Write the structure tokens for this entry.
Amino acid sequence: MSSATSPFPDRIELVGEGLVLRDWAEGDLAAMPELFDHPDIAYWTPIVSPFDEAAARARLDRSRRLRAEGTAILLAITVDGGAPLGEVMLRRAPEGTELGYAVGPAHRGQGVAGRAVRVMAEYAFGELALDQVILELEAENAASVAVATRAGFSLLDVPLIKGEDKGRPYALQTWGLRRP
């Protein structure tokens, strides 16, 4: 384990649904801006924008720190353990264990996000013994709503999460997936 407080192992590789979810590595730094420096990602996610080499370094360092703290895991989405297509995240918080994802523009429309979310949910249910995982997303984000639906999530009857990020207000719906 990373530490006495972290529920996450030092290294993670999850395989399923034609994907390999693996730890981000130093060799991924050059590919990260192409994946994350995009208007859609800047608008719909809290990922910094513009996303350059310095942002990539900061994200890799943050990923490692969050893992060690036991707060979150951020994994590269790949088909074979090689080049990253995007990222899937699992974050433990008081409101629940949240999954999140971002897929690079060149890799969208292939079901990558939904498959990565299902693989991460299986990890949460099997290895972390969780009963439910959640997605928090804006109703206007049609692509993410479609991912939630295809991955088997249902809209939960809970209050909207309202806030502001990057100078714009948002209202997040909470979607849930229960252990099978």
About this structure: Residues 137 and 144 are 7 Å apart (CA to CA).
